[in-house]
Sequence to fold (93 residues):
Amino acid sequence: MELLTILTVLLEGAMDAAASTALLAKFGAGIGAGLAVIGAGVGIGRIGANAMEAIARQPESVKDIQSNMIVSAALIEGIAFFALVVSFLILFV
Fold:
């Protein structure tokens, strides 16, 4: 929080309000895109780990577990892609 306050004070001293707001929007878009990618990576990693654990417990249900894992990973990727699109819209619009 202190970093954001310091950044805001520096920006307000150097630029007018409109330019400062645009720069903070770009900064926020970059943070948002990074968090979306990190969150998707963690989510897909947990899906894979839990799927491997489930397959180790019940090897006969590999097909069901694998198909559910792929669908879940695709949904997480879709949410991450949506977050990136929103971040780019903030950045360029």
